[in-house]
């Protein structure tokens, strides 16, 4: 909404926006004994058809939702799970300190008599899908073909690993071969989301 001079009206928390005889309180506003006031900082929006005043926040909070995809680094990894520090949310850098739990059950193979593999190791850069936010924990999955390890370092010498096959990566420096659950684009793009 613009004021009489044509400038956009900006509100701070507690600012008077209207009286309740004129407008109803909308999003990010409240009724304070007949005065409609702003709950958050942002631009004032007046809907004259529905007689409602609201505030469009200047900054939207950065929240993770189910079905978002995230890119992060494995801070720790065990046989059944890995802790992922999240750096990118849906392809955009996040400046929040998000961390999620990646479930690796069913991905490590190792039926009776077979050798178990670790699909993700500490230090790997991983792209994951958010599958749940149960109990305030961000639960992640790499079950899709586009999800999985996108960059990894050799466990012996620390040099970057290159794709060898669908599940194996090889170090050009020392010849070490390791198994991972690789994303479709492993090693083809720089380390970005």
Fold and architecture overview:
It is a single chain. This protein is mainly β and 193 residues long. The chain is 0% helix and 44% strand. The chain has no helices and 16 strands. It has strands at 10-11, 16-19, 24-25, 29-32, 35-38, 42-47, 52-57, 69-77, 81-89, 92-103, 125-132, 138-141, 148-151, 161-163, 168-171, 177-179. The protein has a 5-stranded mixed barrel. It is elongated. The mean pLDDT is 84.
Layout of helices and strands, plus pairs?
Layout: E1 10-11, E2 16-19, E3 24-25, E4 29-32, E5 35-38, E6 42-47, E7 52-57, E8 69-77, E9 81-89, E10 92-103, E11 125-132, E12 138-141, E13 148-151, E14 161-163, E15 168-171, E16 177-179
Helix share of residues?
A: under 10%
Rg over alpha carbons = 25 Å
Largest sheet: 5 strands, mixed, barrel
The stretches of 5 or more residues where confidence is low (pLDDT under 50) are: none
Main sheet: strand order: 8-9-10-12-11
In whole angstroms, how far apart are the ends? 37 Å
Number of strands: 16
- The residue-averaged pLDDT reads 84
Shape: elongated
Which structural class do you get from the secondary structure elements? mainly beta
Q: Helix and strand string, N-terminal first?
A: EEEEEEEEEEEEEEEE
In short:
The chain contains no helices and 16 strands. The protein is mainly β.
Features:
5-stranded mixed β-barrel, mainly beta, 193 residues
């Amino acid at each position: 909404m613009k004021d009489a001079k044509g400038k956009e009206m900006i509100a701070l928390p507690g600012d008077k926006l209207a009286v309740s005889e004129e407008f109803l309180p909308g999003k990010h506003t409240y009724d304070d004994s007949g005065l409609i006031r702003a709950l958050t900082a942002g631009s004032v929006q007046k809907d004259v058809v529905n007689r409602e005043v609201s505030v469009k926040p200047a900054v939207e909070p950065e929240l993770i939702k189910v079905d978002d995809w995230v890119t992060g680094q494995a801070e720790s990894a065990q046989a059944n799970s890995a802790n992922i520090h999240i750096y990118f949310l849906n392809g955009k850098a996040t400046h929040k300190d998000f961390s999620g739990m990646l479930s690796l059950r069913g991905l490590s193979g190792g039926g009776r008599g077979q050798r178990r593999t670790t699909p993700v190791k500490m230090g790997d850069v991983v792209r994951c899908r958010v599958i749940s936010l149960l109990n305030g924990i961000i639960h992640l999955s790499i079950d899709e073909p586009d999800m999985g390890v996108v960059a990894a370092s050799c466990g012996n010498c620390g040099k970057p690993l290159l794709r060898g096959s669908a599940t194996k990566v090889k170090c050009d420096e020392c010849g070490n071969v390791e198994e991972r659950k690789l994303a479709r684009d492993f090693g083809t793009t720089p380390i970005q989301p």
